[in-house]
Design goal:
about 280 residues, mainly alpha, 8 helices, about 80% helix, rod-shaped, disordered N terminus, disordered C terminus
Length: about 280
């Protein structure tokens, strides 16, 4: 008597295996794999577009790029997890002779992607620290240059004012022209205020010529203090913003690296489903 359960081309065994594959489970598995793939591919395309046009020699651009990548890094992690869930939720069918197990390609690709992204975010933390440090140094130099330019402009304006007042003192005709310009109603408010200050300074300088130098020195000191105060405020704000972004980006990058590597390790160490056949006699 033949053993129909072990005969070649057993029709009853094939029917029993097909009955185990639930249509609902297969549908859920396809939805999960599709959702995971869209999350992964969409984020990768978005991150690649952020690199256009590339400018890796610019520390500010590089640190901003890494920060944007880190902010988007959780979406591929969710995509990989959903993709693996879809593979594991799929009904297990008979392994074809000489071929890979069903879903093995999806699992290998997801694990490889998770490991690659984990290493990428692990390396992104020190890279961002260095690029943000250099970018902060460049920004500090710009603040110092702006303060130096403001100081130079202040000195130039005060020197011009001092020369103008001394020239007026030596030329009575220009004093009359100043009074005429001050009385002109078409002059703007700022211009009238400036002319009034010059006229007041002239009156004081007629009694004591040293007043001009004293006024210039006082104005220079006040202007210099204001420039230094603005410079210090800009430095403090830059330091605060850089520190906050650095802590957030580095910690997030390290957490993402740990998450991706754990997902990859989970996929590698997960037990492989055993494919069984029901026998019918």
């Amino acid at each position: 008597m033949k053993d129909w359960g072990h005969s070649k081309g057993d029709p009853f065994g094939q029917v029993a295996m097909k009955a185990d594959a639930s249509p609902l489970s297969a549908y859920i598995a396809r939805i999960l794999k599709l959702t995971g793939s869209i999350l992964i591919l969409g984020t990768i395309v978005d991150c690649l577009l952020l690199m256009i046009p590339p400018n890796f020699m610019d520390n500010e651009w590089l640190s901003s790029l890494i920060r944007e990548w880190v902010n988007r890094g959780v979406l591929p992690l969710i995509g990989v997890a959903v993709l693996l869930l879809g593979v594991w939720a799929a009904p297990h069918q008979k392994e074809t002779s000489g071929k890979k197990k069903p879903g093995q390609g999806w699992v290998t690709g997801a694990i490889g992607l998770a490991m690659s992204l984990g290493i990428l975010f692990l390396l992104a933390a020190p890279l961002y620290f260095n690029s943000s440090r250099l970018a902060s140094a460049d920004a500090t130099r710009q603040i110092n240059d702006q303060a130096a330019q403001a100081q130079q402009q202040l000195n130039t304006q005060l020197a011009q004012r001092q020369a103008q007042v001394k020239a007026l003192l030596s030329n009575p005709e220009q004093v009359d022209q100043l009074q005429t310009a001050l009385a002109n109603a078409s002059s703007s408010g700022d211009q009238k205020a400036e002319l009034q200050q010059i006229q007041d300074l002239l009156k004081q300088a007629q009694n004591d010529p040293k007043v001009i130098d004293q006024q210039v020195a006082t104005a220079r000191q006040a202007g210099t203090e204001q420039i230094q105060q603005q410079q210090q405020q800009a430095r403090d704000q830059l330091t605060l913003n850089t520190r906050k972004l650095r802590i957030h980006t580095i910690l997030t990058s390290l957490l993402l690296a740990i998450g991706y590597l754990l997902v990859a390790w989970t996929g590698i160490s997960s037990p492989k489903p055993k494919l069984t056949r029901q026998k019918a006699r």
